[in-house]
Request: fold
Amino acid sequence: MENAGAGSIEDLERENERLARLNQIYLLVISRYKEYIEEKEEIAVAELPRLVMPSSPLIVKKATEIQDSIENYFYEQNFKEASVAAFNFVQNKVEEITLPLQFWLNPEETTAFMAGDATDRNILLCSLLIAMGNPSARVLIVMGVVNRSIRVYYEFSDSYTMFDLSSGSVSEYASKEEMLAQFHITDETTAYEFNDQVYVDIE
Reply:
């Protein structure tokens, strides 16, 4: 029995070593063809709405699971609670990763891998909120000279709720103007928002 156990451990170690070597080869291939891949992956910011996919089956399934987790779910009464549950799902279950190149994941891929970069995760959250019935949800990106902020917000019951996956915070505002004021948008700032239907530059 001891030999069998030792053999199993040795087999596992060899498999881990094989996978480590394979990952190194994958990284080499990615690094070698990084510019080519990024060229093919490049999309104009105005095309970002196509990455928000609230109608895709996997997103609809996850949105339904979140709604069903709330007893006697009713949109008008429980959407805010469900939106926080969606935020917690992405925040706690979908790992933020940094790839060695610019590569877009759509929300179904982010959900399937349970991982994505900051933009992928925010696009997933926006997709879930729209799939749960709130078409006002948008991804907001603000780029200053040195900083880049990305958030998801939605309008509901005459207020604006904004999610920050980077800090894990949820904030509520009485108006969109109040919400945007915290970003101190100037002529040197690039700011825009989008969902599956629109792309808007913010000035």
